[in-house]
Amino acid sequence: MAVVTGLTATRMLAIEAASVVSGTVDNETGHLLLTTHDGTVIDAGYVLGTVVDATDTLKGIVELATPTEVATGTDTTRAITPAGLASVLSGKQDADTDLTAIAGLSPAVNDVLQFIGTAWANRTMAQLKTSLAITEADVTGLVTDLSNKQPLDADLTAIAGLSPAANDILQFIGSAWVNRTMAQLKTSLAIAQSDVSGLTAALALLAPLAGPTFTGTVTLSGRQVITPDAISISGGNASIDASSGNVFAIAATANFTLANPTNPTDGQVIHLRITQDATGSRVMTLGTAWSAGPNTVTLSTAANKVDHLVAMYHSGAAKWHITGFLAGF
Fold it and tell me: Over the stretch 187-201, which tens digit does the pLDDT of each residue have?
């Protein structure tokens, strides 16, 4: 005879705790996982049976493709996700009718693309030139610009690349153009005195001549201006340096002696212009080197009167021979 055991509260709670309340299949392992009332998870084992890979006609297991595999586009077993597809599409040109038409053309070397009428076409240079119908007027500005261009030259290109400073010169040294300073050029020239002897002689001719000597016939054109040397009375004497000129102006501001001229030259002729001051009656006495010969030399007495005396030096007698005297101008 069977023994019947009564259900106690404890037994009832134990049964309730062990009761299965939910179950799921693990996608990675294919096992059935059961969860009891008290939270215990029970692995019921593999429940999927034999699963095949999915094909384009059969459901099954698939592996997700990486963005690289999506971009390659040759894998036939992996599935594309939205993220993988977006990564590929981000590098693609949006569909465009113009681009599609251009992609369908087959241009040759040097062809250009031109939209003719309502369609894109590839044109040769000759066809483009015909379409442009270029005339002389269209290239006038270009011709002008080209006329101002220097033909390409290696020397000019090298010179254009230099950066000379103030006063530099260009010199071709060795096999290249360089800019040189004046000091560098002077060193390179190594100028000696013999190199400039001719130049020195030429420059000497340009300088004022202190005592030129002329031989033969000297022909002068135009006027010859001789500025009188001004002689003033000092210590009762009117002193003349014959080497300073040939014309002298004496201001008679007191009685004076016409002193013997210094530095005379044989045959030298001098002309004296003697002017009385506003008082007048100034008396001139001749020095020992002056000889009037048969002439009488007496100054005018009226105020501001002018007298002229001309004399030639005779070195043999050491005398100035007075060859002319006119008074009262």
Answer: 888 877 677 666 666
